[in-house]
From TrEMBL, chain A:
Keywords on record: Cell membrane, Membrane, Transmembrane, Transmembrane helix, Transport
Subcellular location per the Swiss-Prot or TrEMBL entry: Cell membrane
InterPro entries hit by this protein: MetI-like, MetI-like_sf, Phosphate_PstA
Topology term for the membrane: Multi-pass membrane protein
Keyword Transmembrane attributed: yes
UniProt protein name: Phosphate transport system permease protein PstA
Family membership noted in the UniProt record: Belongs to the binding-protein-dependent transport system permease family. CysTW subfamily.
Source organism of the structure: Paenibacillus helianthi
ABC transmembrane type-1 domain location: 62-280
Record field: transmembrane: 12-34, 66-87, 99-123, 129-149, 181-202, 258-280
TrEMBL record, chain B:
Pfam family name, one: PBP_like_2
Signal peptide: 1-20
Reported function: Involved in the system for phosphate transport across the cytoplasmic membrane.
Highest rank taxon of the organism: Bacteria
Domain PBP, residue spans: 51-290
InterPro entries, sorted: PBP_domain, Phos-bd, Phosphate_ABC_transporter
Subunit field text: The complex is composed of two ATP-binding proteins (PstB), two transmembrane proteins (PstC and PstA) and a solute-binding protein (PstS).
Family the entry assigns: Belongs to the PstS family.
Name the UniProt record assigns to this protein: Phosphate-binding protein
Length: 298, 322, 277
């Protein structure tokens, strides 16, 4: 075969496969949205699920997913920022730092089911927290934390060296440099990364089946006292999230419209992930502009 | 300009700090209240009178996903009339429920099987401490894909199919179609019931058989797969699959109650030792006429009322007429 | 801040400790020998004389992972080439969001789509019931596409420009440059992506369990029902009581999953080292 012909064929193949991936995504999204969208209504998003009758919604599940995400981020963001900043700015390169980096790597590649089982053993049974939002949030922390650490560390490392050196030249303390010079520049990357990892937390199911449980007690959405058992805010109640609900409805659903509910819930989940993606881009750009605008002007 | 930059930063930082502080506070408070709640359950119970409305305390139940909808629904009604009682129902599977009730992590362990069947050998002692409360009966029917062309199967024919001796529907009087078994995993309580009372023998897994743990998936697969056979609880049966007679007996609620149809099992709610007052009140309510009559929750959710049964069965499978 | 790092270390040590101590109890209790567990092909924990051979699950996990990687790798590498070599400008603009979205779709949704699209498709086109190894591998291959693509794209983008330019200057076509210069130089880096993808496939639970059929046997064909380590764990964990031999055997499988994670991470490290040289 002539090199020219080979080149043409190869290029065509590469383009074909690349477009195939686009087609797979479009097909996937199209399938999920077309099957699910006509089932989504305000009522579906807010009402409680029905056990054997049609017309149940996913209100509590949606709330649980969001609440669990908030709890997880409350735990992981400060810890992740701390560990990440330590790794990037304070830790001296050496065996120990390398070891920690290895740990972060291992922890982030653990299968979610192993994390869930560990949560079941330690948090649910040993600590006796039961199937609860706290247990779920802690389990999610286990695999969101390494992500946060890596995001923070990488964000700090991409900050140009000169900025740091300028800070030192001005006689600023290390802490001052980290908080006032480096963090602002790293922040857009960190926020984008956090939102993307939040999307992953939002869709997680395997780890939560064993920790947050697969049931949702009746919630009283007028009771906002976190200590009360029927309050949606009580972190010690079992909480089925949207992703777990899809799994359960798909397999155990007795309601006659179980398939439509699964399709509707899948669509809600995918739309939420889409929103997270768009939000990550938007915020990243917005904050970047806010924080760098001053530089261009002065 | 420098000022604005600092401002944005400060805002970001304080929010992080505030959030983490919040998180700590929440965690602390609730841990305390949660413990308080549990203690309350333990200490209040003995001083309680059983008059009903002023009952208070909290109950935690976990286990069987097959029983979960019923317990949840009855618990909601119970909490409406007893405002002081808080009942949490969790899933996790029969094994989890039995483990947790044996370890006293929960007050009630829901199970599809007798505790003795799961807690064996080294754990047999644990099973002895558990007190059984049978609240409902679930009957299981053999079902096939619509085109299998079979209406009834005998016990022997079922055994032949599930042990792989018979592989085509025409051998048992059906269409010329390969048989596809949709089984449950060997740990499943539904499978144990089906093997004990329909086949009368344990079966080995067959190469190429499909195993699903959930009734919804089993039903979907049998409905879609030509030549498929499996088994489902009566509450899952509908027009998408063909329900078989067993030795000519229709798997109907009446036939189960009279003992004519043998493939059924109890739904158990286990307590560790005798139940406390609150738990006992709830368990009594589970078997009360309001819950178990023909308009009650048990029937509504597709179970068979345990109190209606004219026959009873012990751990060893021995059936006696009441 | 060093507290945060310390916490990470505590988490991983306790995780390894708890899973390992639980997983080892199968062997220390004397119920099962290690060799019997790893190479035994018979899994019948409820039989009168139970046997706990986990080989079918281990084999199943490797089988779906390898097939998924074989399907996904060429596709991903093509996508990465498309983004960096063929149309660097809008190719990246088009594929980058696609990749991010694909990696964002939750695994239960993949399982749901697999069960309602891929399984019926396979049932109608191939012999068998549609459910099986092929369905599991197909679902997984889509799930690991983003991982491999993004790593491969990064590797290709970091390649020194002059390397390509000198190849073009020698009169090589684009394909010749790609096949003889670009791919061989970036091979270890691309393999890193493949290994990372395989690690994800190996540990994925729900999506696979929904479509693979879960029979505890080494499959005779790609269209036959089989099991993976993750699928048998999700299927049986809740049904068994803590401390029973079957439950312990499931924990041993979790331990195998964990050990495989270490292997994958080590592989990635080795590849990265080779990449630096």
């Amino acid at each position: 075969m002539k090199p020219r012909t080979a080149d043409k064929i190869a290029t065509a193949l590469i383009v074909f496969f690349a477009l195939l991936i686009v087609a797979i995504l479009v097909g996937l999204l199209g399938y999920i949205l077309i099957r699910g969208l006509n089932h989504i209504s305000w009522d579906f998003l807010t009402s409680a699920p029905q056990k054997i009758r049609a017309g149940g919604g996913v209100g509590p599940q949606l709330f649980n997913s969001i609440y669990l995400l908030v709890l997880t981020l409350i735990i992981t963001v400060p810890l992740g920022l701390g560990a990440g900043i330590f790794m990037a700015e304070y830790a001296r390169p050496g065996k120990l730092t390398n070891f920690i980096r290895l740990i972060v790597e291992v922890l982030s590649s653990f299968p979610s089911i192993v994390v869930g089982l560990f949560g079941l053993l330690l948090i649910v049974n040993t600590f006796n927290l039961g199937f609860s939002l706290v247990s779920g949030a802690l389990a999610l922390t286990f695999f969101n934390l390494p992500l946060m650490v890596r995001i923070t560390e990488q964000a700090f490392r991409t900050v140009p060296k000169q900025q740091k050196e300028a800070g030192f030249a001005l006689g600023l303390s290390k802490w001052k440099i980290v908080t006032t010079v480096l963090l602002p520049v790293a922040l857009p990357t960190i926020i984008t990364g956090t939102i993307l990892s939040a999307g992953r937390v939002f869709g997680e199911a395997a780890a939560l089946m064993f920790t947050a449980g697969m049931s949702s007690p009746r919630l009283d959405f007028t009771n906002w006292n976190p200590a009360s058992a029927t309050s949606p805010l009580n972190p010690f109640r079992p909480a089925e999230t949207l992703a777990v609900h899809i799994w359960k409805v798909n397999s155990e659903g007795l309601a006659p419209d179980a398939i439509q509910i699964a399709a509707g819930a899948s669509a809600v989940l995918v739309i939420t992930v889409l929103i997270f993606n768009l939000a990550a881009r938007y915020f990243g750009r917005l904050i970047y502009r806010k924080l760098t605008a001053s530089k261009r002007m002065s | 300009m420098q000022f604005r930059k600092t401002w944005v930063m400060a805002l970001a930082l304080t929010s992080v700090v505030a959030l983490s502080a919040c998180g700590n506070n929440n965690g602390g408070n609730n841990a305390a209240t949660n413990n308080g709640g549990k203690n309350a359950a333990a200490t209040n119970a003995p001083t309680e009178t059983s008059s009903g409305t002023d009952l208070s305390g909290s109950i935690l139940a976990s286990g069987s996903t097959a029983l979960q909808p019923l317990v949840e629904q009855v618990a909601e009604k119970f909490m409406k009339t007893n405002k002081g009682v808080d009942i949490q129902v969790q899933g996790g599977g029969s094994g989890t429920g039995l483990t947790q009730v044996a370890e006293k992590q929960v007050d009630i362990g829901n199970s599809d099987v007798f505790a003795q069947e799961k807690l064996k050998d080294a754990d047999a002692e644990k099973a002895k401490a558990l007190v059984d409360h049978q609240v409902a009966v679930v009957a299981i029917a053999a079902v096939t894909h619509k085109d299998a062309g079979v209406d009834t199967l005998t016990k022997q024919q079922l055994v032949d199919i599930f042990t792989g001796k018979v592989t085509n529907w025409k051998e048992v009087g059906g269409a010329d179609q390969k048989i596809q078994i949709i089984n449950r995993p060997s740990s499943s309580g539904t499978r144990a019931t089906f093997e004990n009372f329909a086949l009368g023998t344990k079966t080995e897994d067959l190469q190429g058989s499909i195993q699903e743990d959930s009734s919804g998936t089993v039903k979907k697969m049998i409905g879609e797969t030509p030549g498929a056979i499996g088994y489902l609880a009566l509450s899952y049966l509908d027009d998408s699959v063909k329900t078989l007679k067993y030795d000519g007996v229709e798997p109907s609620v009446d036939n189960v109650i009279t003992g004519k149809y043998p493939v059924w099992a109890y739904e158990h709610m286990y307590t560790n030792g005798e139940p406390t007052e609150v738990v006992k009140a709830f368990l009594d309510y589970m078997v009360s006429d309001e819950v178990q009559n023909e308009n009650g929750d048990v029937v509504e959710l597709g179970y068979i009322p345990a109190v209606k049964m004219q026959v009873s069965r012990d751990v060893a499978g021995k059936v006696t007429t009441k | 801040m060093s507290f945060c790092v310390l916490l990470l270390i505590v988490i991983i040590i306790s995780m390894v400790y708890f899973v390992a101590s639980k997983g080892i109890s199968t062997f220390t209790s004397g119920d099962v020998k290690v060799s019997e567990f790893l190479f035994g092909t018979k899994w019948s924990p409820e039989a009168d004389t139970p046997s706990y051979g986990a080989f079918p699950f281990i084999a199943g996990s490797f089988l779906v992972t390898l097939i998924a990687a074989l399907i996904a790798s060429p596709l991903s590498i093509c996508a990465a080439l498309f983004m960096t070599e063929i149309v660097p400008g809008w190719g990246k603009k088009l594929l980058q969001p696609v990749i991010e979205l694909l990696s964002g779709i939750p695994s239960v949704v993949y399982g749901f789509v697999g069960l309602s699209v891929i399984v019926p498709f396979l049932r109608n086109t191939f012999p068998g019931q549609g459910i099986g190894v092929a369905a599991g591998a197909l679902v997984l291959s889509v799930m690991i596409l983003p991982t491999i693509t993004s790593v491969a794209a990064d590797a290709l983008a970091s390649l020194p420009q002059n390397l390509k330019e000198s190849s073009f200057a020698l009169g090589a076509t684009r394909w010749q440059t790609i096949a003889r210069v670009i791919l061989p130089t970036t091979f270890p880096a691309i393999m890193t992506g493949v290994v990372l993808g395989m690690a994800r496939a190996f540990g994925e639970a729900l999506a696979v369990q929904m479509v693979i059929g879960n029979a505890p046997f080494v499959p005779r064909s790609l269209f036959e029902s089989a099991s993976t380590l993750t699928s048998v764990i999700t299927l049986s964990m809740g049904n068994t009581t803590m401390g029973s031999p079957q439950n312990n055997a499931l924990w041993s499988m979790a331990l195998v999953l964990m050990l495989m994670t270490f292997v994958f991470v080590l592989l990635v490290r080795m590849l990265e080292r080779r990449n630096k040289i």
